[in-house]
Amino acid sequence: VEGKTVKAQIWDTAGQERYRAITSAYYRGAVGALMVYDITKRQTFDNVQRWLRELRDHADSNI
């Protein structure tokens, strides 16, 4: 960005429920988020609202 190197870390839980207890740790210090779902699996699209709610609950309000 503007001639500077930008470091990006992508953390992927693959939507697995066993990681829900620690997702707040993923959001801590984040400056951005990318929600991805599988267009061939309706359930992943249906989960987007919950993921957004969790993001809003645990991430900085500026994200």
Automatic annotation (TrEMBL):
PANTHER family to which the protein is assigned, alphabetical: DRAB11-RELATED (PTHR47979)
GO molecular function, one term: GTPase activity
The protein, known as: Uncharacterized protein
Gene3D superfamilies per the UniProt record, alphabetical: P-loop containing nucleotide triphosphate hydrolases
InterPro entries in the cross-refs: P-loop_NTPase, Rab_GTPases_membrane_traffic, Small_GTP-bd, Small_GTPase
Source species, domain of life: Eukaryota
Source organism of this protein record: Gossypium raimondii
Family named by the database record: Belongs to the small GTPase superfamily. Rab family.
